[in-house]
Amino acid sequence: MKILQVIDSLALGGAEVLTASLYAGLLKRGLFCEYYLLRSEQTPLERKLADSGARIHAPLRASVYSPRHLRAFRETLRRFKFDVVHVHLFPAQLWAACGAWAARGATPLITTEHNTENRRRTYWLRGIDRWMYGRYRRIASISPATTKQLVAWLPELQSKIADCPNGIDVETFASASGPGKQALFSVTEDTPVILCVGRLEMVKDHETLLRAMSSIPRAVLALAGDGPLRRPLHALAEQLGIGSRVQFLGKRADVPQLLKAADLYVQPSRWEGLSIAVLEAMAAGKPIVVSDAPSLAEQVEDTALLFPVGDAHQLALRISTLLADPHLRQQLACLAQQRARMFGLERTLDCYERLYRDVARKAEQ
């Protein structure tokens, strides 16, 4: 069986990491994945996937919002034969739906809903979403909160939704070893290091984390990831007087080692689907602080400290509590690592294999 995985790009991000991680696991099950990118950025994740043998289609050098993707995707479907097309994220969801419709072929489409919220959920865009999701045979949802929000937006989608929680290779993060704080963060081993991994964009709410850091002396904040808000966040750190204690690490391929060296992990997101970054921190055995966005609260349950979304004061209190209490840090780290075992990649692979085979079989009937 041949699957085409379609996504905006393979930049650092939870959906991108999940999409790339499907390749090797599905190959062992006799399912061959190829990848279609709206934009090739030659990221470490993209290069690693190509080096592992995956075929990557990236026919255009254009914005992910360019309508030219409709024709390019249509031609890809006409030229190559796939049993199922699996699409991740918007606008890939839109161009794949349009391209498949224009190709007038029978290749079934499925999509994964990766977030509980998005900026399209306004009444004047409901018709576009209704048409777009209507092109998909099934919709994989990565968490109960994601399902709840999507059904509230478009109730008619309920019958199409299948639960497919994200998963990771837990052992990679549980057994990682690294060179330590001095080599990774250029600080002494007794300096508290707080790590946050993710794209520097509005939804991740790094601004709240920076404001919280202004109340936490000595600690260093390491931000792994890049994005459109890098310059504004750097300027804010300087304005808050913490510029020397905030490290912008950019895109990193050594996240397991960064996690092992850090003292605790923080995810201040305004919303999430099911956070791969938080799963990785859980598997690494880190004490964690997350916002009380519904999906994050579901994900960590009682294994992390929660703070109200956007509340820098409460976030600072949670971080300070953990830094001052080694016993609590150890307790939460152990609980998090135990819970991470529930989110192994094999369970995710099982779900998608069933989904692919079921959709392909029904398409042939």
Features:
Rossmann fold; alpha/beta; 6-stranded parallel β-sheet; 7-stranded parallel β-sheet; 365 residues
Overview in brief:
With 365 residues, this protein is of the alpha/beta class. The protein has helices at 14-27, 44-51, 68-79, 92-103, 126-134, 144-153, 170-174, 181-185, 206-213, 230-239, 255-261, 276-283, 294-300, 312-324, 326-340, 345-364, and strands at residues 2-7, 32-37, 55-57, 84-88, 109-113, 138-141, 161-163, 193-197, 220-224, 246-250, 264-267, 288-291, 305-307. It has 2 domains: 2-167 and 344-364, Glycogen Phosphorylase B (Rossmann fold); 170-343, 3-Layer(aba) Sandwich (Rossmann fold), CATH 3.40.50.
Write the layout of secondary structure elements.
Blueprint: E1 2-7, H1 14-27, E2 32-37, H2 44-51, E3 55-57, H3 68-79, E4 84-88, H4 92-103, E5 109-113, H5 126-134, E6 138-141, H6 144-153, E7 161-163, H7 170-174, H8 181-185, E8 193-197, H9 206-213, E9 220-224, H10 230-239, E10 246-250, H11 255-261, E11 264-267, H12 276-283, E12 288-291, H13 294-300, E13 305-307, H14 312-324, H15 326-340, H16 345-364
Parallel strand pairs: 1-2, 1-4, 2-3, 4-5, 5-6, 6-7, 8-9, 8-11, 9-10, 11-12, 12-13
Helix pairs in contact: 1-16, 3-4, 9-14, 12-15
Describe this structure in words.
The longest helix has 20 residues, at 345-364. The protein has helices at 14-27, 44-51, 68-79, 92-103, 126-134, 144-153, 170-174, 181-185, 206-213, 230-239, 255-261, 276-283, 294-300, 312-324, 326-340, 345-364; strands spanning 2-7, 32-37, 55-57, 84-88, 109-113, 138-141, 161-163, 193-197, 220-224, 246-250, 264-267, 288-291, 305-307. It is α/β, with parallel strands linked by helices and 365 residues long. It has two domains: 2-167 and 344-364, Rossmann fold, CATH 3.40.50.2000; 170-343, 3-Layer(aba) Sandwich (Rossmann fold). The chain starts with a strand and ends with a helix. It is built from 16 helices and 13 strands. Helix 1 packs across helix 16, helix 3 packs across helix 4 and helix 12 (276-283) crosses helix 15 (326-340). The model has no long low-confidence stretch (mean pLDDT 95). The protein has a seven-stranded parallel β-sheet with strand order 3-2-1-4-5-6-7, sandwiched between helices. Strands 10-9-8-11-12-13 form a six-stranded parallel β-sheet, with helices on both faces.
